[in-house]
Amino acid sequence: MTRRIVIIGAHAAGVDAASAARKTDRTAEITLITEEKYAGYSRCGLPFVIGGRIPSFEDLIVFPPSYYKMMKLDLKTETKATRIDVGKKVVETVDRSGKTEEIPYDSLIIATGARAFTPPIKGSDKAGIIPLRTIEDGQKIERSIREGAKTAVVMGAGLIGLETAVALQERGLKVTVVEMMPQVLPAMLDADMAKVVQTTLEQKGINILVNKPVEEFLGVDKVTGIVAGGEQINADLFISAFGVRANTQLAVEAGIALGETKTIKTNARMQTNIADVYAVGDCAESIHLITQRPVVQQLGTVAVRQGKVAGINAAGGYATFPGVLGSAVTELYDLQIGVTGLTEKAAKMAGIEPIVGMISSKTRADYYPGAKPIKVKLIADKESQRIIGAQIIGGEEVTQRINAVSIAIQKQMTIRELAKADTAYAPPLNETWEPLVLAAETLLMKLR
Amino acid sequence: MVKVDGYEVPEGLYYSKEYAWVKIEGNRVRVGITDYAQKQLREIVYAELPSVGATINQGEPYGTIESVKAVSDLIAPISGTIEEVNEEVQARPELINEDPYGEGWLLVVKPSNLEAELAKLMDFNQAVEWHKSMIQEGK
């Protein structure tokens, strides 16, 4: 009998799940359901469209409708999944015209993602607080800039907040970023590395206020200002970058269990507690490879890898997802920022005593024109001397160094092993001593 | 040869709506997939083709091609007995991307019901119109 696979959500996790399912089962009926008008686009690219580096929002569509057609995937856009009946094994949907349908499944993959979240702050019901999660959000921001917005407040100094702040500043707006925590990128970097980022952004003219929780939105119907840390800031444009919350309601109502992180709990095959139901992407939990504890890692790379595993399993194959290290990179102006594994702060919270090696070096031979600074912070577990994390900030070549450390962590490499790494060098491309190796050597000195 | 929004559609071939092209060579036909199809699939890494002597039937799958992420059944545009299989493509599937109408051909078939089946395929002009409509839908 033909296998019926239903996937709720059609972005990174959902589409990769569908592709993997099709590869595993060539005859299955595969249905993708999304509330959005556009499917299969890259949310991560949104700030770069606003900044003008990518010409249009449509360019972010990674999987055009022709892809689904060739892969024989039934894509239902502007269709909302309203209920999952795990007993009858059906998903109830309603489309834009109000038409309801019951779609039966043999395997169900929940890839409902996450939504931008604005905390319950006084006045948060006023109009004009725009998140940046969807193409429609991006278009709203674009419209506001074209209509003459001159100033913007970005609330939240996480990845999306800072990327959006840079984008708006590149479009000529005067930008203020307010962050409740005492540093920028609080979930990604330790305070010492975050300071480097903050200083650079301030030098570029972005006003950054840390330790400033948003306390109130001002204005009559539409927001015209905020109060943050007792200070009033008026602006034309207000970006909500507080963070995202997993869309779990549909799953919870169907009796699917959440984990301690309040996202959908899964095992290594991405199976939930309910038979034949899988969960992947921003709505699902992951296991951290170092702490072995559940974490929420709402990253595109995690979404596609989980999606692939669930797609294979849902189509009758066997695959497992090993867990996450939270590897992430971004670029803000000419600064590349990357992280993998635990920060010093996160290690301590997990009960691991970290030892830290820091090194400032260059991305090319010191004498070679265009050599850019690069700063590496390498973190190891004091007892096992294994590498457990890295943060790198540099003018270039950050991503592949983060990837190298990520692989080192996955292979449980020790500081001593990394210090002996056989690395490559040529004057236009690297220093003779690879910065990662130097960072490992500084760590070794601390163990003497 | 014309290009429809960047997709090549050569003259003199017949086309199926399952993205196959057919070229008549005397009493045999050569079969492959279109430029549009290979571009949708992106880098093709695997081609599973039948053996010489096997028969294929119009409208039925005879093999698969796979890229890193995508997979597609190969649907026979014509019925007949396979006389040649492009072994080069099995060793180097990227030929389908590089030259879908030339070195990336897939099969040579001795057709069993050519005249009747050709009537079900699109000629060049119809194929150009079909490509235009697909591209319109894709936007």
Q: Can you characterise this structure?
A:
The complex is a heterodimer of chains A (448) and B (139). Chain A is 26% helix and 27% strand. Chain A folds into three domains: 4-35 and 78-114 and 245-314, FAD/NAD(P)-binding domain, CATH 3.50.50.60; 118-242, FAD/NAD(P)-binding domain (3-Layer(bba) Sandwich), CATH 3.50.50.60; 328-446, FAD/NAD(P)-binding domain (3-Layer(bba) Sandwich), CATH 3.50.50. With 448 residues, chain A is α/β, with parallel strands linked by helices. Chain A has helices at 12-24, 46-50, 65-70, 135-146, 159-170, 191-203, 249-253, 300-314, 344-349, 399-410, 415-419, 435-446, and strands spanning 4-8, 29-33, 73-76, 79-85, 90-95, 100-104, 107-110, 114-116, 129-131, 151-155, 174-178, 207-209, 214-218, 225-228, 231-234, 237-240, 244-246, 277-279, 286-287, 294-295, 328-332, 335-341, 354-362, 373-381, 387-394. In chain A, the strands form seven sheets. Chain A has a five-stranded parallel beta sheet. With 139 residues, chain B is of the alpha+beta class. Chain B has one domain (2-113): RNA polymerase II/Efflux pump adaptor protein, barrel-sandwich hybrid domain (OB fold (Dihydrolipoamide Acetyltransferase, E2P), Beta Barrel). Chain B is built from five helices and eleven strands. Chain B has a six-stranded antiparallel beta sheet. The mean pLDDT of chain B is 94.
Radius of gyration of chain B: 14 Å
Instruction: Please count the helical segments of chain B.
Output: 5
Radius of gyration of chain A: 23 Å
Strand content of chain A: 25-35%
Q: Main sheet of chain B, how many strands, which sense, barrel?
A: 6 strands, antiparallel
Assigned CATH architecture of chain B:
Beta Barrel
Question: What is the CATH C level class of chain B, in words?
Answer: Mainly Beta
What is the string of helix and strand elements of chain B?
EEEEEHEEEEEHHEHH
> What is the level-2 CATH architecture name of the largest domain in chain A?
3-Layer(bba) Sandwich
Order of strands, widest sheet of chain B: 3-4-5-11-10-7
CATH class of the largest domain in chain A: Alpha Beta
Stretches with pLDDT under 50, minimum 5 residues of chain B: none
Largest sheet composition of chain A: 5 strands, parallel
